[in-house]
Design a protein that fits this description.
By secondary structure, the protein is mainly α. It has 12 helices and no strands.
């Protein structure tokens, strides 16, 4: 079919970059949702000129099938691509993205205040018991974020339960968890 031919051009190594870019744009503009997703995932991975706009559109689609490409884009050489990928992951709000986001936070490759906001937003959409588990068993940076998110749950009404839960972190071995 014409769509499979366009995908072949888009992914083909024997084609000029402009031909591949045009094939991706055609797929995105007129194709079914699956082909559009395929096109955007390709653009964010292989076309630096289109990566920011592609990340933005993937976030607007809230398509969990794009999480892998968006997570990889957190390591993109351009800061604007990394920032837009983080924003798209925030829109998708998949807890599975937390390791990639906290890794990006630790490596300081992306605006840390933006990443902090993204991670806390994702945690705030999770159930309190899931966040509690992350605060106890996750990596150190994720434990810090989860502990901070638990404090925010208390702002929403169940303060007694949250205070009781947070008291156990007073003696945590990590000073960042204690401070959160």
């Amino acid at each position: 079919s014409a769509w499979s031919d366009l995908i072949a051009v888009m992914e083909g190594q024997n084609f000029q970059k402009d031909d591949r870019k045009r094939a991706a744009q055609l797929l995105e503009a007129e194709a079914d949702p699956a082909s559009r997703l395929h096109s955007l995932k390709f653009q964010i991975s292989f076309d630096p000129d289109m990566a920011v706009a592609s990340a933005r559109r993937l976030g607007q689609m809230r398509e969990s099938k794009a999480v892998a490409e968006l997570s990889m884009a957190l390591d993109h050489p351009r800061d604007d691509v990394r920032r837009e990928a983080a924003s798209a992951l925030k829109a998708i709000s998949d807890p599975g993205t937390l390791p990639a986001l906290t890794k990006a936070y630790e490596t300081r490759t992306t605006d840390q205040s933006h990443l902090r906001e993204v991670v806390l937003e994702i945690l705030s959409k999770m159930k309190m018991d899931q966040v509690l588990e992350l605060s106890q068993k996750g990596e150190v940076v994720l434990r810090r974020f989860a502990t901070e998110a638990l404090g925010r749950f208390g702002e929403g009404g169940s303060k007694k339960a949250v205070v009781k839960t947070l008291k156990q972190f007073v003696n945590d071995s990590d000073s960042g968890v204690r401070a959160a």
